[in-house]
């Protein structure tokens, strides 16, 4: 017998559903509104703390040299490890991983590892003998719902922030240079995939973005979409017991794509800010920012909305209107095409930009995508989705679609359904 | 609630996590630790004690799986908590202490112990006394409470004191030292513990 998790009572469930039918959420957010992300970095490379509302996750990237797998002699190794710390919730047990832990780990792996976000070949030191093994440790500090999104942001930011020590070789011997001797080398990320989660209620009647703890418990199913800034699909998971229609999945995925763009932009900004800060002051970091971030977390916007007075409500509705406007704007600028920007000296970057024409990126069609840059492959998902629905009728099964969104190897489009 | 002592560089914040009953983040000289307390909560059957609450302690390092050293931190903190908490008030329950290392630049044990004490105070759980840990360094000749600039450290002592009579609750030593040096270190740390308890007061009254 282990410590049981707190159950949600029937009246709480009913209350929540009733609220949803009146288009309100318990914390006053709009249906497609996410909680605020805060990203802060520690003193060490690859140490990152991310909070999504009150949910918070600590990520630390570490590296070591090991032998490569015999099947892939020239590739480094990436390991993701999510730890449900008892700090986050008393029913999280240390020791062996729980079912939830395994599922979260797999979803993160699908999003980050299987989408080939990290360039593993650049981690090779000597073929068949020595490669870098990168390990990402994710510690959940506070569990207030939607660990997956928070953890995926934390893992990605930590990977983008991390720098490994330089290695040189004279043919025989390998020398690992300390950070003082040579500048450490950042990891090569091909693209930035993040997970975006939606909770499904009443078999698809209500779809809520970024579910909180109570919403997570009450929901019928959840839809997690892995996407990068170019709106390419890097993993899709529908868990639970809800029969979602194709249109619903498509429209939700489109919404998720817009969100992913914003999240990735936020991650990149945070990393730039950190780099600037490090340049300015070489003083050690006191995690002072963490104090501030955590202090900001307790601010009034997270206070129980029922405690608020009329004034607050008015303000809320105004905010909501604004929110609607912004989301509308987001929808308008749906089609996002990447631009190639020359950075000089044989380097270039794919920069996602907003374009106003066009409405959807994923459609059931075989139209030519004339207005899209050649560099970008628009992923079409009609077929898998139809299959997905068939599978989804059975609550015990989970459908997994992996679309290889590699830009160069267009033909490598595959999907598999896992049971 | 963020205060800084003039001489040392403590900074602390209480109640930073919403789930635990009590939580604290404590940072001293670039070593940062988060501690959280749940309790009294339901107990696992194999850990049930019929006359008092059982104290469970979980320490997580920043990266990798917990090793032997981390288990040792756990046991120091668990023993300290068992001595300090009034466990007999809540028989057949458990008190869960969870610690997460955020940043390590030395003096990790004392920082973790102090963070746990602050978390206990924030949780409002019954305690017989507060406890404070102090680290002291010896280079063979001199003792100091601050890490010396040169790396000629012969021994490191960590002592945990109670707030009422300043008795030693736990001690942990590393390195080579004589009996006299040990006694000297106890006295030095005892005097240093005042600063820790003063800091607790400052945090709680602000």
Automatic annotation (TrEMBL), chain A:
Keywords: Cytoplasm, Exosome, Nucleus, RNA-binding, rRNA processing. Transmembrane segments: none annotated. GO terms for cellular component: cytoplasmic exosome (RNase complex); nuclear exosome (RNase complex); nucleolus. The keyword RNA-binding applies. InterPro entries: ExoRNase_PH_dom1, ExoRNase_PH_dom2, ExoRNase_PH_dom2_sf, Exosome_comp_Rrp42_subfam, PNPase/RNase_PH_dom_sf, Ribosomal_Su5_D2-typ_SF, Rrp45. Its main location: cytoplasm. CDD domains: RNase_PH_RRP45. It holds the Pfam family RNase_PH_C. It is found in: Cytoplasm; Nucleus, Nucleolus. One of its GO terms (biological process) is rRNA catabolic process. Signal peptide: none annotated. Residues 33-165, 191-250 form the Exoribonuclease phosphorolytic domain. One of its GO terms (molecular function) is mRNA 3'-UTR AU-rich region binding. SUPFAM superfamilies: Ribonuclease PH domain 2-like, Ribosomal protein S5 domain 2-like. Belongs to the RNase PH family. This is Exosome complex component RRP45. It comes from Phyllotreta striolata.
TrEMBL record, chain B:
Gene3D superfamilies: GHMP Kinase, N-terminal domain (3.30.230.70). Residues 10-125 form the Exoribonuclease phosphorolytic domain. PANTHER family: EXOSOME COMPLEX COMPONENT, EXOSOME COMPLEX COMPONENT RRP46. One of its GO terms (cellular component) is nuclear exosome (RNase complex). It holds the Pfam family RNase_PH. This is Exoribonuclease phosphorolytic domain-containing protein. Keywords: Exosome, Nucleus, rRNA processing. The keyword Plastid does not apply. GO terms for biological process: nuclear mRNA surveillance; poly(A)-dependent snoRNA 3'-end processing; rRNA catabolic process; rRNA processing; U4 snRNA 3'-end processing. InterPro entries: ExoRNase_PH_dom1 (IPR001247), ExoRNase_PH_dom2_sf (IPR036345), PNPase/RNase_PH_dom_sf (IPR027408), Ribosomal_Su5_D2-typ_SF (IPR020568), RNase_PH (IPR050080). GO terms for molecular function: RNA binding. Belongs to the RNase PH family. It is found in: Nucleus.
């Amino acid at each position: 017998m282990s410590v049981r998790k707190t159950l949600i009572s029937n009246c709480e469930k009913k209350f929540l559903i009733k609220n949803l039918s009146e288009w309100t959420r318990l914390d006053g957010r709009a249906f497609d509104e996410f909680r605020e992300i805060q990203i802060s970095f520690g003193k060490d490379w690859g140490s990152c703390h991310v909070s999504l509302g009150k949910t918070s996750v600590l990520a630390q990237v570490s590296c070591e040299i090991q032998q490569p797998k015999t099947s892939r002699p020239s590739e480094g190794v990436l390991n993701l490890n999510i730890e449900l710390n008892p700090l986050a919730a008393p029913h999280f047990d240390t020791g062996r991983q729980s079912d939830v832990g395994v599922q979260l780990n797999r979803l993160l792996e699908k999003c980050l590892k299987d989408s080939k976000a990290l360039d593993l070949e650049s981690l090779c030191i000597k073929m068949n003998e020595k490669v870098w093994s990168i390990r990402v440790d994710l510690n959940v500090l506070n569990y207030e719902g939607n660990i997956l999104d928070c953890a995926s942001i934390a893992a990605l930011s930590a990977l983008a922030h991390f720098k490994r020590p330089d290695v040189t070789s004279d043919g025989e011997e390998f020398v690992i240079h300390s950070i003082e001797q040579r500048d450490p080398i950042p990891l090569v990320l091909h693209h930035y995939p993040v997970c975006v989660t939606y909770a499904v209620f009443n078999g698809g009647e209500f779809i809520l973005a970024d579910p909180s703890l109570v919403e997570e418990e009450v929901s019928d199913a959840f839809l997690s979409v892995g996407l990068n800034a170019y709106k390419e699909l890097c993993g899709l998971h529908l868990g639970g017991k809800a029969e979602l229609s194709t249109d619903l999945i498509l429209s939700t995925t489109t919404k998720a794509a817009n969100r992913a763009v914003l999240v990735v932009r936020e991650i990149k900004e945070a990393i730039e800010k950190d780099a600037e800060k490090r340049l300015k002051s070489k003083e050690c970091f006191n995690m002072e920012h963490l104090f501030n971030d955590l202090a900001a977390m307790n601010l009034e916007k997270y206070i129980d909305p029922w405690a608020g007075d009329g004034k607050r409500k008015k303000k809320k509705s105004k905010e909501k209107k604004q929110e609607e406007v912004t989301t509308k704007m987001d929808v308008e600028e749906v089609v996002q095409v990447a631009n190639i920007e020359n950075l000089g000296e044989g380097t270039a970057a794919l920069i996602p930009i907003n374009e106003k024409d066009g409405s959807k990126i994923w459609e059931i069609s075989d139209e030519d995508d004339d207005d899209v840059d050649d560099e970008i492959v628009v992923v079409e998902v009609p077929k898998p989705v139809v299959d997905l629905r068939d599978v989804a009728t059975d609550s015990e099964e989970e459908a997994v679609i992996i679309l290889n969104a590699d830009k160069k190897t267009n033909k490598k489009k595959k999907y598999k359904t896992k049971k | 609630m963020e205060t800084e002592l003039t001489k040392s560089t403590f900074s602390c914040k209480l109640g930073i996590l919403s789930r635990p009953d009590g939580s604290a983040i404590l940072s001293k000289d670039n070593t940062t630790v988060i501690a959280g307390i749940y309790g009294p909560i339901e107990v696992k059957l194999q850990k049930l004690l019929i006359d008092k609450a059982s104290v469970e302690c979980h320490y997580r390092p920043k990266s990798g799986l917990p090793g032997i050293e981390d288990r040792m931190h756990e046991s120091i903190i668990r023993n300290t908590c068992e001595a300090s908490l009034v466990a007999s008030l809540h028989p057949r329950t458990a008190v869960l202490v969870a610690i997460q290392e955020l940043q390590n630049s030395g003096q990790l044990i004392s920082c973790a112990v102090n963070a746990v004490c602050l978390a206990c105070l924030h949780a409002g759980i019954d305690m017989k006394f507060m406890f404070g840990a102090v680290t002291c360094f010896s280079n063979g000749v001199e003792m100091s409470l601050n890490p010396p600039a040169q790396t000629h450290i012969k021994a490191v002592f960590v002592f945990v004191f109670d707030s009422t009579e300043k008795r030693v609750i736990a001690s942990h030593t590393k390195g080579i030292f004589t009996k006299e040096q040990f006694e000297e270190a106890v006295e030095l740390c005892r005097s240093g513990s005042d600063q820790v308890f003063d800091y607790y007061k400052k945090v709680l009254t602000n």
